[in-house]
Amino acid sequence: MTTQQNRITDLFGIQYPIIQGGMVWCSGWRLASAVSNAGGLGLLGAGSMHPDKLLEHIHKMQDATERPWGINVPLMYPQIEELMDIIIHEGVKIVFTSAGSPKKYTSRLHEAGIKVAHVVSSSKFARKCEEAGVDAVVAEGFEAGGHNGREESTTITLLPLVRRATTLPLIAAGGIGSGQAMLAARALGAEGVQIGTLFAVSKESSAADSFKRKCLLLEEGDTMLALKKLSPTRLVRNDLYARIVEAEDRGASAEELHELLGKAASKRGIFEGDIENGELEIGQIVTSIQKIDSVTDIMSRLIREYDVARQQIIDNV
Ligand SMILES: Cc1cc2nc3c(=O)[nH]c(=O)nc-3n(C[C@H](O)[C@H](O)[C@H](O)COP(=O)(O)O)c2cc1C
User: Fold this and answer.
1) Any idea what DSSP says for residue 281?
2) Mean pLDDT by 10 residues, the chain (317 residues)
3) Pocket test for ligand 1, best of 19, 20, 24 (most atoms within 8 A of CB)
4) pTM of the model
5) Is 73 helix (H, G, I), strand (E, B) or coil?
6) Which three-class secondary structure state does DSSP give residue 207?
7) Alpha-carbon dihedral 113, 115, 121, 126, rounded to 10 degrees
8) In a 3-state reduction of DSSP, which class is residue 314?
């Protein structure tokens, strides 16, 4: 997958089929440009940016890399029309949409010459992507950090189902933290990978240092899927999480849960570093991270591991 060109590298014009997932409070121009400059595809995470902030990051991105890059747009974004206008006006070439129907914006983005990928958590939504005419589909298992599917399908279960449901170029997401995992995704029909957690904890991520340091201490079982009444989200088990679970156990309504979270809970946790009272989003694969590495170190490790693992399998056959 890494050394050969395939439909994903061709579609986006990148060297390696490694996509850095758009991530609220983590993936600004610094992280995204570092990934693109290392031969992957960096995505700005528009989900945590006001339109004027996104514009600023687009301009910085244009200065920081000449390689392909894109923007992740969660479709429940409140000022989405304004955001789409900026993206089209600024000549952005690649958009990854998530958390909504791919039907609504794909044709408008295509008319502007923009390539569109959409993130799904089930084969049903993968078929909707094909109907909507998207260029690639990201199948994200529930190991992943951030908001998650209600189906709770793991990546290893989801990939073959999505592969069977659509002929679209397929990108695997959720739980990928090594070249070996990339190879497994390849064996299950994916032509590329989207990685969030590893890059959220990288040097170039805009997350708070205390958040990154907390991530290094996490062990198995320290992240859980919560907030199923709102939007299922994988969270670190901190004080806020305990209060959420207590409220959920006594049958709290969606409104009560909103109130409990308070304003900008993910900003408080991930960006401002309030480790106990903020919402800390990170994936299960966080347990594999030993230190805060640079993007170039992460990228070269993934590529090296992939090539070695592939060769070992060939040699053993
Ligand atoms: C801190 C964090 C924030 C995220 N924010 C978003 C987001 O704004 N939009 C989105 O589509 N996915 C978001 N994700 C999901 C990632 O883009 C990616 O698909 C996922 O992290 C892949 O799984 P992994 O965490 O196991 O690598 C986020 C993930 C993390 C860890």
Assistant:
1) B
2) 80 98 98 98 97 98 98 94 97 96 96 98 97 98 95 97 98 98 97 98 98 98 94 96 96 94 94 97 98 98 97 89
3) 24
4) 0.97
5) strand
6) coil
7) 70
8) helix
